[in-house]
Amino acid sequence: MNPDIVRDILDKHSQEGNGLISILEDIQARFSYLPEEALKMVAEAKNIPLVDIYGVATFYKAFSLVPRGKHLICACLGTACHVREGPIIVKEFESQLGIKAGETTPDKEFTLETVACLGACALGPIVVVDGHYFSNVGQTEVRGIIEKAAEGFETADLEQDYHIFPVEASCPKCNHSLMDPSRIIDDYPSIRVTASFGRNHGWLTISSMYGSYKVFSEYEIPKETVVHFFCPHCHAELKGATNCVLCGAPMIPMIVSGGGMIQICSRKGCKNHMLDLSGVNL
Amino acid sequence: MENLRSIEEFKRLQAILLEHVDTDIPTIIINAGTCGQASGANEIIRAAKSRILGKRLVDKVNLRITGCHGFCQMEPSLLIEPSRTFYPNVKPKDVERIIDAVLHNEIVENLLYKDPSSGDRIEKQEDIPFFKKQARIILGLNENVDPIRIYNYIENNGYSSLCKILEKGDPTWVVEQVKTSELRGRGGAGFPTGFKWELLAKQQNGESKYIVCNADEGDPGAYMDRSVLEGNPHSIIEGMIIGGYASGATDGIIYIRNEYPLAIKHLIIALNQARDLGFLGENILGSDFSFDIQIVKGAGAFVCGEETALMRSVEGKVGEPRQRPPFPIEKGIYGKPTVINNVETWANIPVIIDQGGAEYAKTGTDGNSGTKIFSLVGKIKNTGLVEVPMGMTINEIVYDIGGGPVGKAKIKAVQTGGPSGGCIPADKFDLPIDYDSLAKVGSIMGSGGMIVLDDNTCMVDLARYFMNFLKDESCGKCFTCRMGTQRMHEILDDISKGIGTLDQIDLLEELALAVKDTTMCGLGQTASNPVLSTLRYFRDEYVEHIQNKRCPAGVCEELIQYYINEECTACGLCKKACPEDAITGEKKVRHVIDTTKCIKCGACKSVCKFDAVETR
Description:
The structure holds two protein chains of two kinds. The model of chain A has no long low-confidence stretch (mean pLDDT 89). In chain A, strand 8 and strand 9 form a beta hairpin. Chain A is of the alpha+beta class. Chain A is built from eight helices and 13 strands. In chain A, helix 1 packs antiparallel against helix 2 (20-31), helix 1 runs parallel beside helix 3 (36-46) and helix 2 runs antiparallel to helix 3 (36-46). Chain B is α/β, with parallel strands linked by helices. Helix content of chain B is 41%, strand content 14%. Chain B has 25 helices and 21 strands. In chain B, the strands form seven sheets. Chain B has a five-stranded mixed beta sheet. Chain B has a four-stranded mixed beta sheet with strand order 2-1-3-4. Chain B has a four-stranded parallel beta sheet with strand order 9-8-7-10, with helices on both faces. Chain B is globular and about 80 Å long. The N and C termini of chain B lie far apart (64 Å). The interface between A and B is large, with 68 and 86 residues.
C-alpha cells in the first residue's frame, strides 16, 4: 500500500469537507479493499478512534477489510430477481468458481458478491461484472459470463461490436484533417495532435474508433495531468468553452466528418467524451 | 456556460434555446437508463450515430439519448417524434432500416409493437395498452430530456418554476401551494409535504437548515427513484431549490445509494451544470436567496433509508436509527433542523408550482392527490415502471397495464412496500391504490415496489426471503429486532424445509407481534409485515408445508422433486446439462429423472425449451 495515495485522498476530502464514509469509499475504490494501515492513517488524520472507523467499515456492505479479486461479480438477489430464480444463478456461480458468495478465488481473480437490489428489476436475474450489466441471466450463460470477465470487456467490445465505428476528426480552427494514416490504432488511422504538459511538448495519437480509449504519446503523461492540445497544422490550441462535467478539466473540441463535434476531456485518465450530432452550441 | 444573473437573463436564454429547437425534422429517442444499457442500448446508440454520420444525416434527423421510459421489458426501444412511433426490442441491425423509414416519414411495420392478445401491430406509444391507462406526469418528462444536457431541460420548461417563485418573492406562497396540492411523501409513509415544510420554515434553531433528498432506494424490487434520478436529475434539483426557498434552508444534500452508478454520474453532471448557470450557489438568479446541494453516497445499508439513520450516515457515522423525538425537523443533521423527502416527492414539486397546487390536486382522489410511480415486476407479462393516478385499482394495474400473468400461471397476490410491506391477495385486487386503503389490508404503499406473485411463487419462501434480508439489514440496536428477525428466519427456514411444526406458526405470530411493538425505528416496526400478511392470507400454504411436507408452488428445495412431463420431445438437452447424470432416456422416448441422483440444481429446467421439466 502506498501511503501517499491515502494522504492525497485525505487532503482532497479535508478540502471538500467530506465525511468519513466518502473517504473510505475512495480508499476502497483505489485499493479494492480497506487496508489496515490506511484506516490507521484515517484515524489519526481525522482524530477518530480506530474502533469507530472499524465500526463504520464493518457496518456498511460496500466495504471490505480483505483484498478482493481483480474482477467483481455481483449477482442481484432483490425480490424480483429472487422470484425469477436468482438464487439458482448464484449457486451456479458458486459452483463454477468454487467459492461461496462473499469470497474471493485463491488466485485473486474473482470475487463473488450478492446484492439486495441493483434496480433493474424488470430484467432479472441481473448480474453485474466489473460494471457491465447482464440481464435475464440463465444458468447456462454463467460460464460464458465468467470467461468474458477474464478476457476483459474493452477488448471484447471492440472485437464483437461491429457498431463501434471510426470517426474522422479535423481541427475546429483551420479545418485541416487530424487523421494520421501512418499511425494505425485499432486498424484505423489515428487522430494526431500535439500535446503539451509541463515542459513536455510532443505528439499524441488517439484511436479514431468511437468507444475505444487507446492513446499513445511521445512523452508519458502522468495520471490526472491536464494536457493542452494543439493542432499540428495551424498550431492553434484546441480549446472549447466547456469544462468536463466529471472532473472540471477543459474539454477538447474536434470537428467530426459527417457533421458533428466530438469533445474529449483533457485530463489523462478521465474517459469523459461527448459526440454531438446536432443541437445548439451556445 | 455563462452564469445567469437575473430572471431576465434566464428568460432570454430560454427564448434563444426554444428558437433553436428544430421541430421540422424528426427526432429519434433512444432510452439508455441502466436497464436500457443492460439490454443493449449502447450498441443501438452507436449504430444510430454511425449511420447518421456516415450518411451525413445530421441536418435531417435529431438524436436524443434519454433515461428510462418505463417499459423495461421492451428495451432497448426507440421512440420517434413527432409521430410517436414506438419500436420495441430493437436490434442494432434494425437501426438502419428505422432511420431510413423515419427520413421518408414511413414506418417499419414488422418492427412495431405486437399486442400479445390480439396479435395486432400497434404504431403509437400511446395506443399500447401498457401506456394507455397511465398518467405520466413525472415519468413522461424522461422522454423529453437528455439528462446530461441542462439546455434540454430548460427547453422543456425546466427551471421555470424556480423562476416563478423568485418572481413572486414570497416563501409562504410556495408552502401554501404545496399544502393545497395535498402532496404526500412518496417515500411511503405519506406525511403531507406542505406541513413538513411549514414546520421547517418556523424553526428558529440556528442559522442553517438542511434539506435532504432521500435517494437511498433500498427496497429490493423498487427502482422508480433510480429512473427519475438518471432520467431527469434537474427536476429533483429544481424541486430541492424550491424547497430550500420555501423553508429558509441553505444546504441541500442528496443521499444516494452507491449501487446506482449511472444516477450518481448524472447527478454530478447536473449539479455542476446548475451551478455553472447560476441556479445553485450564492444569490441565485440575482436574488438574495442562496442555496447549494451536495451529494453524499451511501455505502450499502438498507436501514439508512430510515430518516434518523440516514442523518447519522450523512455525518459519517454508523447508520443506527435513534429515538424520536426530537424529530429531524427540530434536530437533524449536525443538530440542525432538517427536512427529508423522497426523490419522487421532489420531482413533483416543479410540477405543482407550475400548475398551481389546486390544479395538481385534481388528479387522484381526495386526500391522495397526484400520481404514483410503481415498479411492476415479478411474474407479470409487462414489467416496467408505471405511473398512475392515485386511486386506480390493483386490477387495472395488474391486468390492463401489466397484461396479466405470464404463460398459464395464475396470479395470486401482489407484494407492495418491500420488506416493510405485505401481500395483497388476488381477491382484494379491486382495492384502490392509496396510502389508506393499502394500510387497511395489512400492507403499505411503501416507495412503490409492486411485485406480482403467481402460483409458482411460494409464500413461505417469500416470507423467508424477506426475513433473511431483514436479519442481515437489522442494525442490531434493538434487541427484539436483532434477535427477533433471526428467530423468525430460523422458523421460516424450518417450515420451508419440512421440519416445522404447527406450534411454530403460533410462535411465529407471537414473535412477529413482539418485534412490531418493541422496536424503535420503522425497519423494526414493520419487519413483521411480510410474516403477518402471508400468515393472514396464505396460512394454508404454511400448514401444507408442515403437515403434508409439500410445497404447493414447487419452490422449497427440500420438499420438491424434479420430473419430466409429457411435453418432453426427447431432445436430450437436459441429459447433457445434468451434472450428476441423473437423466436417462433414449431417442424419441420421454426422458426420466432419477430422483436418488438428482441434486435439484435446476440445470435441466433452465435448458428445457418445452417447459417439460417441472417441480412438484
